[in-house]
Amino acid sequence: RRPLRGYPLKALAAVVSSFEEVVVLDADALPVADPAVLFEPGALPDGVAGDFAQTGILVFRDVVKTGVFLDKSWVTHWVRVDLAAYSEAMGGQEADSSGVFIRKRAAWKSLHAIVALNVLAGRGSSLEGVY
User: Fold this and answer.
1) Rounded Cα–Cα distance for residues 100 and 38 (Å)
2) How far apart are CA 123 and CA 113, in angstroms?
3) Over the stretch 32-43, which tens digit does the pLDDT of each residue have?
4) Is the distance from CB of 10 to CB of 97 less than 8 angstroms?
5) What's the alpha-carbon Rg for the chain, to the nearest Å?
6) Could you say which of 58, 81, 112, 130 is the most buried, measured as most Cβ atoms within 10 Å of its Cβ?
7) Helices 9-16 & 104-122 angle (0-180, nearest 10)
């Protein structure tokens, strides 16, 4: 059994935060403008704003290209996703948790599911390495 540390703690930090709106950034993420602006009405394009209002989670694309994963059979085993379709839908970039904006009321169930998966992975279950 290993203790939770590092990026698996991000969802837990959001859950236990006293704030309704939470910005979670990697230590190496550097905002070039005030990220709180994205929580303001009208700050996001209509399609993105609707998704954010429904899910409560806005994840930024990373600079990592999805093509590096296209030959990884272990990804399709665990995630069960068509990686070519995923890569096309994401415009060739991956989404990860290096920059996440969260409205906790809308994302409450998802956040708790992520925390539960991280705890199970930390206990050495078959979810090892899945965050």
Assistant:
1) 11
2) 16
3) 788 888 888 888
4) yes
5) 16
6) 58
7) 140
Q: How far apart are CA 70 and CA 76, in angstroms?
A: 9
**Which two tokens mark 112?**
């708790």
Six-digit token string for 48: 């993105």
d(CA 38, CA 48): 11
pLDDT in tens, 9-23: 888 899 999 999 999
Q: Read off φ and ψ for residue 73, nearest 5 degrees.
A: -65, -25
Query: Which amino acid is residue 20, in one-letter code?
Result: E
Q: How far apart are CA 87 and CA 61, in angstroms?
A: 12
Q: What is the token pair recorded at 40?
A: 């303001």
